[in-house]
User: Fold these one by one.
Assistant:
Number 1:
Amino acid sequence: MAGSSFSFGTLGLISTGVSTLFNAFGAKSITKYNNAIAQAQADIAKINADTMNLHYQQRLFAAEGEYQRETMQAAQMKARQKVSLAANGVAIGVGSAAEQLKAFCLGLPQQIL
C-alpha cells in the first residue's frame, strides 16, 4: 500500500510540473502576442503622426502661397492707383492724393509699402 501511495504522490507531482510547463509556455505565447499587438499599434500611431505632419506642412505651404498672392495683388493695386493718379496729372506725394494713398496703405502689409 505504501508503494501505491508513493506512485500517486509522484504522479501528482509530475502532473503539476507538466501543468506548470504548459502554463509557462502559454503565458510566454500570450506575452509575445500582446507585444506584437502593442508594436503594431505603435507603428500605426507613428504612421498617423507622420501623415498629420505632412498635412500640416502642406497647409502651411498653401497658406504661405495664398499670403504671397494677396500681398502681390495689393502691391499691384497700389501701383495701379499711383499710375492712375499720375496719369490724371495729380501730384502723388502731396495733398489729398497722398492722403488717399496713405489710407489705402494702412491695410497693406509693411513689406510692400
Number 2:
Amino acid sequence: MMNEQLDRIEKMLQVQLRSEGHIWWIGGYVYGQTSNGDVFVILYPAAENLKEKVVRVYDRDLKKLPAFIAVDVDGGDTEANPSKEQARKKGIYHECPAFEICTFDGKDTQMGKERRFGEVLRLSKAAREALSGARGKGAGEKGSRGAGEMRPEGGQGQQQARAPQRPTSPPPPDEPADDGPGMMGLPDYRKLALEAKTAEAFDYAAFMLLRNGLYTEVERITKTREALVPGWKPGEKSNGAMLEALAAYRDKRTGAEGRGEAPTAAHQFAKREAMGAYNKAIQS
C-alpha cells in the first residue's frame, strides 16, 4: 500500500513539474565564466528541436552534475548564453549522455521568472555507462550525487582539460531502461496545439511544445500570442500559423539578444519575423 501511494505521489509531482516546465533531459553543455572569473556550466536540451539553454549551473551546484562533466577547469568559454548552433560553430559545445534534471523558479526578470538548477533526477543508460567509465579512470574523476555517486569534498582532484568533442547524436532521452513502472510518456503536444479549440488549451500545448529560454511559463506564451495577433482565435489554419509565429519569435529574439541587441530592439525585430511567419502560414 505504501509503495502504491508513493508511486501515485511521484506521478502527480511529475505531471505538475512537467506542466510548469521544470523537468528537462540534458544532452550537452558549454563552459561559461562570469566577469568575476567564476566558472559555470550551461546545460542544453537533449532534443535537437530545442536550441536554447535550459539553465546555468553555478559553483555551489557543480558538484551535483554527473562525473562525465568535468568541473575542475581553468576557465569558461563565454559570458553569454549561446544557442546550440552558435556554440557548435565556436567549437565550445560538448555533447554528453542524456540525463534528466529538475529546475525551480527564481526571481522575476524582464524575460519572466529566472530558471534555476535543482537536482539531477536520473540518468539514461548511456550516462550510467559513462559514469562507470569515469569511476574506472581513478580518483581524479568526480561523481554525481544525483546519480548516486558522491563527489569528494575538498577539491583534491586534478584539474581536467576540456578536450574538443565531435558532435554526436544524443541518446534517446526517454530510454526504456530508465523508465520504472511509475513513469509516463508525454502526449503529442504539437497535435494537441493544432487541434485546440480554445485559446487556453492552445497556449498550454504550445508552451509544452516550445518551452525553453524565452517561454518559461504558459503566461509568456499567452502574452506573446496576444502581442503578435490581438484578438486571435483558434482555427484549422490559425493554430498552425501561431505555432510558427511563436517559434519564430522565440528563436529570433533570443538570437538577437545573444548578439547583444537591446531587449526593445530584439522584440521589434522578432515580432516582424514572427508576423512574417504567421502570414506565410495563413496564406499557404
Number 3:
Amino acid sequence: MCRELGFLMKIFEVLNCLVSVSFCQGDLAQAYALAEESLRTDETGFYKANTLYLLGKIVLQQGDTARARAFAEESLACLKEPHHPEDMCWSLALLGKVAFAEGNHSAAQAFYKESLAIARELSYQPDIASALEGLASAVASQGEPAWAARL
C-alpha cells in the first residue's frame, strides 16, 4: 500500500523493521533479502547508513567478518558527512564486534571506546550500556578482568 501511495520513506521504515524482526527470529536469509530491497528502495540514500549497518549485523551473525567490516565501514562513512553522531555509535560498536570476532581485542577496545565517547556526549543511555558491555568483553579478553568488572 505504501508503494501504491508513493510513500517511499514509509516503505523503507517498514522494510527495515521487517529486517530486524527476521534477524531476531533467526531468518538471516530473509533479513538479508529485505535489507537489499531496502537499499534499492531508498533512492535518496537517506537511510543507506542504517541499512548498511543492518547488513553488517546479518553477515557478522553468519560469520563473515570481512563483509561485516565492509558494511560497517561504509555505514560509518555515510554518517560522517553529514555528521550523525547518534548513528555513528551503532556502526562503531559493530566494528568493535567484528574486531572482537576476528580476535583483535585491542581494535575492538578502540572502537568501543569511540562509540562510548559519542554515546556519553549525547547522554544516550542504551548506547552507553552497549558500548560498556562490548568494552568490558574486549578488556577481559586482554587479561584485565578487574578493569572489565569495574566497567
